Amino acid sequence: MSTISAPDIASGRLAPEDYRANFGDIHPPLDRHQALVESDRCYFCYDAPCVAACPTSIDIPLFIRQIRTENPKGAAETILSQNILGGMCARVCPTETLCEEACVREAAEGKPVKIGLLQRFATDVLMETGEQPFVRAPSTGRRVAVVGAGPAGLAAAHRLAMHGHDVVIYDARPKPGGLNEYGIAAYKAPDGFAGAEVDFILSIGGITVENGKALGRDIALSELRGAYDAVFLGMGLAGVNALGLDGEELPGAEDAVDYIGRLRQTDDLAALPVGRRIVVIGGGMTAVDVAVQSRRLGAEEVTIVYRRDRAAMGASAYEQELAATDGVVIRHNAQPLRLVTEGGRVTGVVFERTRSEAGALAATGETFTLPADMVFKAIGQKLVPAAFEEPGAALTLKGGKIAVDEERRTTLSGVWAGGDCAATGEDLTVAAVADGRIAAESIHRALSAA
Amino acid sequence: MADLRTEFVGIKSPNPFWLASAPPTDKAYNVVRAYKEGWGGVVWKTLGEDGPPVVNVSGPRYGAMHAGDRRLVGLNNIELITDRPLEINLQEIKQVKRDWPDRALVVSLMVPCVEESWKAILKRVEETEADGVELNFGCPHGMSERGMGSAVGQVPEYIEMVARWCKTHTRMPVIVKLTPNITDIRYPARAAKAGGADAVSLINTVSSIIGVDIDTFAPLPTIDGKGSHGGYCGPAVKPIALNMTAEIARDRETRGLPISGIGGVTTWRDAVEFMALGAGTVQVCTAAMTYGFRIVKDMIEGLSQYMDERGFRSVEEIVGRAVPNVTDWQYLNLNYVAKAKIDQDLCIECGRCHIACEDTSHQAITSMKDGKRHFEVIDEECVGCNLCVSVCPVEDCITMVPQTAGVDPRTGLANDRPYANWTTHPNNPMARPAAEVVAEPAE
């Protein structure tokens, strides 16, 4: 036997029922009784703090009251009129830092109303009917191009379609949905929910989706501006930040985003290879998502290493707790120094301990090595400006993202932007939906005035 | 442990908690279970005339009014008096009284308005050695269509007549149970007293339709597509019962007439309230039907704690204690000023006080201060109405603070003005001079 063990990467580490359990619904939905009991807890606050905390400003007290009066479809309409992806947001929103943190019951007794689960209850009831509650206005004959079929693009397209405009969505990937389909952790939206929600959104009519069409590769911004009355850019962040270390292109080192995308698209989780020892570099939601899902695929030792302290982590406290519950070890204040490679493979990472000094990160010189069968890079995504940079078409950037005004107008006339590619709020599904809706209303105003 | 023993019209019970005449007291099995849990007494479910037993519907008999979380706050029923043979009931009553001599056992009765009918049944009840009888002049459904129950209770002359017959034909104490389905409860109470009744008990159930099925458009509970009004009881009727109890307790003609208080008694606190307004015992039904007989343990223990803490040596000391404080509106002190105050440490900023005041009352609570969410009473606008206290979800967060010094910024009048009521108010065209202290309530 060799002293250097071969990387232990294997598929089928678990029994079939374990995969089902591990990737089933992480928050089982409320049944009717549970929803009625929970809805009773809402105080129907005046100028409710939960609404102010919601990026899409859903009238939360109203929809909860509608659940209470056994009108869940009405509740869903209240939700969806502000946030057409209310079903997905109910599953993926970090409610503990948004509506539920603001809930006065959190102040009163440390137990907010379960707004996210109530939202899911209502939207599930409506979506099970297969009905589209919104009616398309008579066709205006105006055409709008939307780039990206993720939350921002879908929200924009639905609202534009409602106003009677014809929409064509271009998306680089084979399926629409964006990060809902390819990015978020499988256990947050199981059973093909992302796809079902896309179908629901498109059922309003007037929206065409062109898959496999990437901006800058298959289509050009100048073409779109010429062919359409308005353009909405919502293509997200296609670039992945690199570690900048030798060997990161070798087998054994993977982009977390790519791996999660494969995991989401596979028909058979047991066929997906996973290492026995995993190291994840990064501190955001993607880092937690890849770490937890690796564990749930059967990895034995999963360690997230983040260069700053706990407070600076992008992953919410809830996500960190989830990781801990799943047996993921989170190590703070250590940055990757170099990758250990053997036989043309990455087999470990050498980290250097850090400390924060007056806000800046300082290296201490102390190092440690973590052996790994797989190393996941999850240190953030970035905009790829080359996709829309053309002569004479100057989109101003701000902090590496597309600069927009309050109405999500870019510096280029006739072009709006929103979601992760735009310099707006946090990179959250719900923030992207808000951008899409706000931009669509702005586009509609512009087209109506013209 | 305080002494909870009660003597009501000569009927002794170890505590003032009796079960009202209703389904829980329809047979020995239930009554014995109740006694085992500690109930001080029961009023046996109403017996009717000898003969073919009463027939009940075999569909739903109850309908419910729910508050949040399906808490049952009101119950309505269309059940009739006992549908078991008279003889069996009498045998059981006799046996139970023999086995439980320390507990009160009163028998509820309802027979046609014929003297011989009352005379006959009283004789048979006497043989059981029960402690007393309660005349059911209250049931608003079913039996009333046959000239009994509330059909009698709504006519003071009948009440007086039947009460007199009963007093004539039995040595047992006679309690008259009153229906609330009348305009002024004092008239039937006076009639009962005039007829020689030893006590009144109230209230019986309130005529009600508990709800309508909005799919079938039939009243609830629905019997084969139809519904009939029922009798409403439970926590929701308590305020009605308290008022009627107080009206009888403070009426010049019926003052001192023993009262057994009924209507939504669910906790020991409810019981204390009824007693304070003049009830010597309380009768319970809905609470038992909701939670079972063991709730009496909390009632007994709670009352005992309360009495110990307040230094009351007997239940008698509570009875009627609030009656002197019940008056007519015209004698309320119009110079008394109170203002709401919001405890900012307790406030959870739900804003319900603000919107209630802003939309429906006096625009006396802020929603913002220095650009931030903040709820504070504006003394210049606050009339002291107590609506904000009523809608606030947090206990004691908003309180009504009596203003005893300085000037009310709303009216510009001094806060320490002496007592003055409507009878002497300059705006009252009927004002009569020199009526500063009026102890006697008006007719």
TrEMBL record, chain A:
EC id: 1.4.1.13, 1.4.1.14
4Fe-4S ferredoxin-type domain: residues covered: 33-63
Manganese as UniProt keyword: no
GO molecular function, a single term: glutamate synthase (NADPH) activity
Gene3D superfamilies xref list: Alpha-helical ferredoxin, FAD/NAD(P)-binding domain
Record keywords, A-Z: Oxidoreductase
Enzyme class, first EC level, given as a word: oxidoreductase
UniProt cross-references to Pfam families, sorted A to Z: Fer4_20, Pyr_redox_2
Protein name: Glutamate synthase (NADPH/NADH) small chain
Protein species of origin: Prosthecomicrobium pneumaticum
Upper classification of the organism: Bacteria, Pseudomonadati, Pseudomonadota, Alphaproteobacteria, Hyphomicrobiales
UniProtKB/TrEMBL annotation, chain B:
Protein keywords: Iron, Iron-sulfur, Metal-binding, Oxidoreductase
Pfam families reported for this sequence: DHO_dh, Fer4_21
Reactions catalysed, as given in the entry: 5,6-dihydrouracil + NAD(+) = uracil + NADH + H(+); 5,6-dihydrothymine + NAD(+) = thymine + NADH + H(+)
UniProt xrefs under InterPro entries: 4Fe4S_Fe-S-bd, 4Fe4S_Fe_S_CS, Aldolase_TIM, Dihydroorotate_DH_cat
Enzyme Commission (EC) number: 1.3.1.1
Region described as Disordered: spans on this chain: 418-443
Recorded GO CC terms: cytoplasm
Coiled coil (UniProt feature): none
Top-level class of the enzyme under EC nomenclature: oxidoreductase
Biased composition (Low complexity): 433-443
GO molecular function, one term: dihydropyrimidine dehydrogenase (NAD+) activity
Function as written in the Swiss-Prot or TrEMBL entry: Involved in pyrimidine base degradation. Catalyzes physiologically the reduction of uracil to 5,6-dihydrouracil (DHU) by using NADH as a specific cosubstrate. It also catalyzes the reverse reaction and the reduction of thymine to 5,6-dihydrothymine (DHT).
PANTHER family in alphabetical order: DIHYDROPYRIMIDINE DEHYDROGENASE [NADP(+)]
Subunit record text: Heterotetramer of 2 PreA and 2 PreT subunits.
Family assignment from sequence similarity: Belongs to the dihydropyrimidine dehydrogenase family.
Protein name in the entry: dihydrouracil dehydrogenase (NAD(+))
